[in-house]
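Weekly structure sync, notes
Attendees: PL, DS, HV (note-taker this week)

Item 1: Elongation factor P
DS walked through the input record. Source organism listed as Terrabacter carboxydivorans. Sequence as pasted into the shared doc:
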Amino acid sequence: MASTNDLKNGMVLNIEGQLWSVVEFQHVKPGKGPAFVRTKLKAVLSGKVVDKTFNAGTKVETSNVDKRTMQYLYKDGTDFVFMDTDTYDQLNVSETVVGDAANYLLENQNALVATNEGLPLYVELPASVVLEITHTEPGLQGDRSTGGTKPATLETGAQINVPLFLETGTRVKVDTRDGSYLGRVND
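Item 1 (cont.): predicted structure, written out as tokens:
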């Protein structure tokens, strides 16, 4: 338990059985009436952001969220198996928890896995990853008048749009937040 006077950005609160991360907070002392704390909270599981106001000094339940760098090993049915790089403990994370990160996750790649009391909450990848294009149609001569793009399939099976000049086998940098093409990688 903590008081609303002790809130800090990034702190995780347990409100009515749901985990909420404090995005920002502000202590307000109006001229009339009691002081209060205005907060912006983000749901840890869904990402939904809400504004919530607490009376100053109110007790709130805090939760400990453990974020560790883990290595993705393999997919086992609908679970993704991660290994803690320090203890070598393995953790099964369900498909729903991994979410869109699965589109950019390769075996032996590191990711940040957040857990609460041993229960996986979410998987966070680096801002960008390098992946190989496994299939894309050849760009036709004369298609370049608008600097167009074409669909390409990555080695993870995800589809992104890439410039027309890229070919199958090219390694590209991809933004893991929105799946956008960031550039070609020359190894």
